[in-house]
Each structure stands twice: as structure tokens, then as C-alpha cells.
């Protein structure tokens, strides 16, 4: 042991005599300090700080690769090998000592950066969950990655003795760090081959350098990210030992035996995640996966059915691990005689079986998000049947459900629904939205999983919930906090600073907006809110309004943990409430355009107190459409678009005249238009004609 300690001491002394080390190390630490300071203090988004340090990771990978090469080549270049060979087991002590020096330096570097980050966390009062998750992030994306990079450098030092080693390291460096996002993008373009999964596997840093922090889900700390790096480390370590001691058959055989004993079970565990890597990680945990599918399958009809039926009870048995496993028992009542009915269920879930109340297997057909269940005999009108679905798989990247976190809103068909609509849809112009597949029934829920579950149902036992006459079931678990105030229980991301005050303030503001919508627009929205979920659900229309109402439970979109401001003087909350009321399944491109223009007009009516700003905005709109009109006139075949553009200009010019003459003429204008949008179908051009007539 003393000899090994002597070797380590010698290696460290020789290393720190190199002036380059004393130049590079402070520069990197200063840069990371700036990054952590910028996001913690200036941007006030502590949770984003560590995920925005990809340049540090990329640079450090090269630095530790060169370090590994330098440690191996130093004695050879200085012709000091004889010194170690003269010692008993000198060669073994030398290589173990160099490896430990590399490990010590890497760990010290990661530890110093961790301390810097945690100091900023303490200054900004970051929640304790962020400390724990950051430690795991440092281990997966920094420590293991840097150790692998150092090992690669040592292998190159054994193999290559010329200066071409630096070129080799540079090329490898481009493909093993966050920069490989761009390298593989270029390769994919040149070869026309989808290489995203390969890019993910080779990347030792965070997969997507553009990915923001996900509230509720947290950092990308899935087990397979840790396992992937372990597999690479095991492989390189075994290769290095065999390469270095290739003359000793005993060492080679022993290494191979140990390698396969460790590698095979680890790989089998990793292999279980191939599907989730393909579905989630290769699409960056965002809406690309679903957006691409529904855009490409716009003409793929779901299984249509005229047979209406009620779902009276729904008993959910949910098990969440790497994927979700569900056993859902439904009591259905047909409204007319039939031998089959159609459910909606998200397409990625694999249905293992469908059975009736007697345990007999029922045939089923699937298409997109629809499941047609065929009974063994005709079912009479008003007759009740029990149908049990057993299914498993990976949820949508938009609505995650794994051992790290769960976010399954009630409107998403993760349980079979009697709403005959796909989970999501995309118009020809790319408007992407979710359909509401929730339904009112009596629900029970049994849950098994890693994290505490939060739901709109009432808790009746350990991991058991129940709700009667409830519209859907929302499930949330992960990095979540719960707060009750004035009889309202609300759930929000645990990393949100002052979240209890901020989100309570939001609830009050939206309750006021709902009351205004009920008064001014004749709505009957429920203000008796009991539970509210602030979760990172996707946006639902061009203006980004995202609010869902399920009886006395609300779901709000929150994609940021910034909670230091909230503008109470604008009317965006009212518009968001109106957007909720105008939302429907199977929306067309025209309907999106109608909503967008209506909200613009409505915002002008409700911001009459800020006339100067309103007129400035309208002038900008008119200038934009006039420019568009000029470009359209060059092509006579675009007569329809020219007509629409001219009508938009006419509408905005009329609004300007009203503001200049008598803005009170706008009283109730939006309410009148709103009722007609809600109660009748019309094209966008018909809507423009209506507005011109009414204004």
C-alpha cells in the first residue's frame, strides 16, 4: 500500500508542476461559477443552471481525455519506464496509481463545481430536492462521463505513440459529448439515416443540450442513463486491462470472466429500456414524437362508431415502474343494441387482454387511438356489461409515466374512454392540440409506485382513492408539493420558489376571470374549486392558452418555475378562460384562426384603459396585413387569401375608428361574437363577414 501511495504522490507532484494545469483549471472554475451565478442570481432559475453547463462538460471531456493520455505517455516520453520496471510489481502499481490519480482529479473537479453550485443554491433558497437531484446529475453526466473520457485517453496513449493521437482524441471528443447533437445532425442529413438513438448512446453528457428543466419530472435521471455509462465504462476498462497486460494469459482470462459476469446482467437490464430510449430520449422528451405521428396520420381515421354507451364505474389498478402496467375494469351500459363498442386508448399501450365479467376473452381491433371490443353475443339496450382491460407500455412523451414521475391529466386517454376521438390531432397547417377524452363516472384507484401520488380523487386508504360522479382522473407524482388554502388544495412543482403564495395568487386571479366570463359572456363555469394542478402540460392553441376544467378540479399549464411576478392588470386570464370554453374535439384550421382573431379583438375591448398601446398594436397588425396583401397581389390565383387579408384590414381599421370616436361602442361586442362562435359552425371567411357586419 505504501508503494501505491508513493506512486500516487509522485504522479500528483509531476502533474501539478505543469503550468498548463494551473492555467486551465481556474479558467474552467471561473466559467462554471459564472454559469451558475447567471442562472441562480440573474435569471433566478436555479433548476436550469446545471442543465445549461453543457459547454463545461464538453470542454472537460477533452481535458480529461488529454489527461489520461498524458499520464500514460509521460514516462515513455521521458524514458522513465525503467524506474517502475525495477520495482517489484512496479508496472502494476504504476497503472493503478495513474488510474487513481485520474479518478481523484475528476472527483475533485466535480466536487468543487458541486460546492460552487450549492453555495448559489443556498443564497437563492433553492428547495432541498434540488440538492439531491443535482448530486445524482453530477454523478451521471459529469463524474462517469469524465472517468470514461480519461480511460479513452489512456487507451489511446497505449495504442498511438505519434502526434496523431491528438487528432484521434479530437475526433472522438466531437462524438462523445453534447456537441454530438450537431455532429449526428449533419451525418443524418448526409446519409438520410435516423441516428438519434446512436447519438444518445454515445453522448456522455446530457442528451439534448437545448432541453429545459422539466417541472415535476426534474432532471433526466432515469436508471438507463446511469446503466448506459456503466456499460461503456465496463467495456473500456476490460479492453484497457487486456490491452495493457495482453502478455499475461491469466490476467486476460480473469478479466474476460469478470467482464461477462458483470456486463451481461447489466446489459439485460439496459435492454429493457430500448423502447423508452427510442420513444422518449430520441425525441427529447417533447412533443416531436406525437406531433410527427399525428401530422403524418391525419387521414388515418379512428374506428368510427354510432353506438353510444356510458361508463358507469371505472376501477383502476396502476403499477408504475420503468413503464406503466394497468388493469382497468369498466362497467358499461349500452344505449342501443350492439355486438361491439369502440373505446379510445392511447396507441402506445400494448393491450394484453380484454375480458368480460365471466373472465371470457373478448376479441378487439385497434386503429390509431381507438379500440373496438367485440362481444361474444349481442348486448341489449340499457344492458350493463363488465369489461376488463389489461395493458402496459410507455406513455406519450408529453404525458410521462415512469418510476421518476407521473403526469397523466384526466383529458388524456390513458384509461379506456367512451369519447370517440384520438388522443391528439394536428391540422394541415400544423396546429397541434389534445382532445378531451375524460368522462364522468364513479372511479376507484389503486396505485403502486416509487413516489407519492396526487390525484383529484379522495383518499380512502393506503395508496387507494375513490370518487363518485367525477369527470376523469388526473394523476401526478414526482417533484411535487401540496398546499391547502381557503378550502382549495393545489399541487405545484417543488422547485418553485414561494410557490405556495404565487400559485394561490394565480387561483384567486383565475377565479375572478371565471366570474367575469360568467357575467360578461353568459358562461356557467364552476367557481367552487376544490383541487388545482399546476403541471407542465402542452399548450393548446396559437396564443398559448392552456387551462382545463374538470368539474371542480382545474389543470393549469406551468412550464417555468419562475414565481416572482404575476401581472394582475392584463386580461389574459379572461381570454384563457374563454379559450377553455371554446375548446372542442376535432377542431379545424379555420376554427383556430377564428379563435385567434376573436381573442385579439377581445383583448382590445378589455384593454380600453390603455388606449395608446392598443392603437399601436392595431397599427402594427394593419401594417403586417398590408404588406402581406401586396405580396399576395402578385399571384392572381390567391384571390381567396387576398379577400381574407382585405377583410382583416377592414376590421382593424373599423376598430381604430371606434377607439378614436367612441370606444363605448365596443361594449358587449366580444360577448355577442363569442356566442355566435360557440353556437354555430362557420368558416374563417364567414367569421370575418360576421365581424364586419357586427362591428
Walkthrough of the structure:
This protein folds into 4 domains: 2-204, no CATH class; 306-467, tricorn interacting facor f3 domain (Immunoglobulin-like); 479-572, no CATH class; 589-694, no CATH class. The protein contains 21 helices and 20 strands. The chain has a 7-stranded mixed sheet with strand order 4-7-2-1-11-14-13, with no helix packed on it. Strands 16-17-18-20-19 form a 5-stranded mixed sheet. Strands 3-6-5 form a 3-stranded antiparallel sheet, with no helix packed on it. A hairpin with a 3-residue loop joins β1 (309-320) and β2 (324-334). α17 runs antiparallel to α20 (669-679). The model is unreliable at 564-569 (pLDDT under 50).
What can be said about this structure in brief?
This is ABC transporter permease. The chain is of the alpha+beta class and 695 residues long. Helix content is 50%, strand content 18%.
Mean pLDDT: 85
Name the overall outline.
globular
Distance between the termini: 90 Å
Q: Helix fraction? A: 40-55%
Name the poorly predicted regions. 564-569
Share in β-strands: 15-25%
What is the tally of beta strands? 20
| Major sheet description | 7 strands, mixed
Question: Total domains, how many?
Answer: 4
How is the largest sheet built, in terms of strand order? Answer: 4-7-2-1-11-14-13
Helix count equals 21
Q: Find the structural class using helix and strand composition.
A: alpha+beta
Radius of gyration using CA atoms only = 31 Å
Amino acid at each position: 500500500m505504501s508503494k501505491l501511495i508513493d506512486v500516487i504522490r509522485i504522479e500528483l507532484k509531476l502533474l501539478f508542476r505543469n503550468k498548463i494545469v494551473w492555467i486551465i483549471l481556474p479558467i474552467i472554475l471561473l466559467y462554471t461559477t459564472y454559469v451558475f451565478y447567471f442562472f441562480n442570481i440573474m435569471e433566478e432559475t436555479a433548476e436550469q443552471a446545471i442543465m445549461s453547463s453543457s459547454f463545461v462538460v464538453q470542454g472537460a471531456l477533452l481535458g480529461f481525455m488529454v489527461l489520461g493520455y498524458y499520464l500514460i505517455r509521460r514516462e515513455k516520453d521521458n524514458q522513465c519506464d525503467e524506474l517502475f520496471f525495477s520495482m517489484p510489481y512496479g508496472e502494476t502499481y504504476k497503472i493503478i496509481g495513474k488510474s487513481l490519480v485520474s479518478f481523484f482529479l475528476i472527483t475533485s473537479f466535480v466536487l468543487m463545481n458541486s460546492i460552487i453550485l450549492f453555495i448559489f443554491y443556498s443564497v437563492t433558497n433553492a428547495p432541498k430536492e434540488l440538492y439531491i437531484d443535482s448530486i445524482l446529475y453530477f454523478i451521471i453526466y459529469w463524474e462517469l462521463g469524465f472517468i470514461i473520457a480519461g480511460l479513452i485517453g489512456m487507451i489511446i496513449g497505449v495504442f498511438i505513440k505519434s502526434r496523431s493521437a491528438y487528432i484521434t482524441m479530437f475526433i472522438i471528443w466531437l462524438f462523445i459529448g453534447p456537441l454530438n447533437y450537431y455532429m449526428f445532425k449533419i451525418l443524418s442529413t448526409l446519409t438520410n439515416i435516423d441516428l438519434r438513438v446512436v447519438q444518445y448512446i454515445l453522448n456522455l453528457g446530457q442528451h439534448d443540450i437545448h432541453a429545459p428543466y422539466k417541472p415535476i419530472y426534474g432532471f433526466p435521471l432515469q436508471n438507463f442513463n446511469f446503466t448506459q455509462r456503466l456499460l461503456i465504462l465496463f467495456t473500456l476498462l476490460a479492453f484497457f486491462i487486456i490491452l495493457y497486460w495482453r502478455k499475461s494469459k491469466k490476467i486476460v482470462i480473469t478479466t474476460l470472466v469478470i467482464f461477462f459476469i458483470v456486463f451481461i446482467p447489466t446489459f439485460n437490464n439496459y435492454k429493457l429500456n430500448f423502447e423508452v430510449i427510442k420513444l422518449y430520449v430520441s425525441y427529447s422528451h417533447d412533443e416531436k414524437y406525437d406531433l410527427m405521428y399525428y401530422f403524418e396520420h391525419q387521414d388515418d381515421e379512428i374506428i368510427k362508431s354510432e353506438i353510444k354507451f356510458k361508463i358507469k364505474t371505472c376501477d383502476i389498478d396502476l403499477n408504475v415502474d420503468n413503464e406503466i402496467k394497468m388493469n382497468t375494469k369498466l362497467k358499461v351500459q349500452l344505449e342501443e343494441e350492439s355486438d361491439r363498442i369502440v373505446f379510445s386508448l392511447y396507441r402506445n399501450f400494448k393491450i394484453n387482454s380484454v375480458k368480460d365479467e365471466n373472465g371470457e376473452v373478448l376479441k378487439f381491433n385497434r386503429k390509431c387511438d381507438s379500440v373496438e371490443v367485440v362481444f361474444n353475443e349481442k348486448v341489449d339496450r340499457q344492458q350493463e356489461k363488465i369489461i376488463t382491460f389489461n395493458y402496459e407500455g410507455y406513455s406519450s412523451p408529453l404525458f410521462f409515466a415512469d418510476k421518476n414521475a407521473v403526469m397523466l391529466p384526466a383529458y388524456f386517454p390513458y384509461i379506456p374512454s367512451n369519447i370517440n376521438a384520438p388522443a391528439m390531432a394536428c391540422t394541415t397547417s400544423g396546429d397541434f392540440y389534445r382532445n378531451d377524452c375524460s368522462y364522468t363516472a364513479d372511479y376507484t384507484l389503486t396505485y403502486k409506485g416509487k413516489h407519492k401520488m396526487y390525484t383529484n380523487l379522495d383518499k380512502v386508504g393506503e395508496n387507494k382513492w375513490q370518487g363518485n360522479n367525477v369527470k376523469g382522473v388526473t394523476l401526478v407524482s414526482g417533484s411535487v408539493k401540496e398546499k391547502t388554502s381557503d378550502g382549495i388544495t393545489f399541487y405545484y412543482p417543488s422547485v418553485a420558489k414561494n410557490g405556495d403564495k404565487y400559485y394561490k395568487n394565480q387561483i384567486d386571479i383565475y377565479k375572478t376571470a371565471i366570474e367575469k366570463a360568467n357575467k360578461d359572456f353568459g358562461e356557467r363555469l364552476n367557481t367552487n374549486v376544490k383541487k388545482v394542478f399546476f403541471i407542465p402540460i402542452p399548450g393548446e392553441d396559437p396564443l398559448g392558452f392552456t387551462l382545463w376544467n374538470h368539474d371542480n378540479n382545474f389543470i393549469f399549464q406551468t412550464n417555468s418555475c419562475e414565481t416572482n411576478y404575476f401581472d394582475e392588470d392584463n386580461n389574459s386570464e379572461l381570454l384563457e378562460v374563454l379559450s377553455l370554453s371554446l375548446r372542442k374535439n376535432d377542431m379545424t384550421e379555420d376554427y383556430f384562426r377564428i379563435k385567434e382573431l376573436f381573442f385579439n379583438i377581445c383583448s382590445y375591448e378589455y384593454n380600453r384603459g390603455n388606449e395608446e398601446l392598443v392603437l399601436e398594436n392595431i397599427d402594427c397588425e394593419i401594417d403586417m396585413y398590408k404588406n402581406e396583401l401586396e405580396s399576395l397581389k402578385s399571384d392572381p390565383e390567391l384571390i381567396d387569401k387576398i379577400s381574407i387579408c382585405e377583410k382583416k384590414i377592414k376590421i382593424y381599421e373599423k376598430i381604430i375608428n371606434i377607439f378614436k370616436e367612441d370606444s363605448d361602442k365596443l361594449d358587449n361586442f366580444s360577448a355577442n361574437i363569442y356566442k355566435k362562435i360557440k353556437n354555430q359552425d362557420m368558416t374563417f371567411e364567414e367569421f370575418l363577414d360576421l365581424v364586419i357586419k357586427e362591428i
